[in-house]
Amino acid sequence: MNAPKSSNLSAVYARNDNARFVVAGLSAATPALADIWRQLDRALDDMPALGAIVARLTADLAGTRMDRANLLAAMRATLGAHADGDADPLLYLRDELAEYSARGDA
Fold it and tell me: How many CA atoms are closer than 13 Å to the CA of 49, on its beta-carbon side?
């Protein structure tokens, strides 16, 4: 199965709404297939919950990427401070790790 053409959740929700409209029309036109239309409608009901999960995971991923960038910057600063003969080159890492501890991430 191919991935959706758009990862924009608004576009996905719009396609879901259009599909619901089509199912409602087909259901009215062919009531003999009511069980199938109900099953399709229930499947479309899953979209809002899945969209919420995708939105949360996207936000979590953005936070993780920022954390990684901050840690990498602290590592580079530590190495640079060490190369410069700084008296406390690990200060950068300690500060960054303290941020994690303050947030409860460590």
Answer: 5
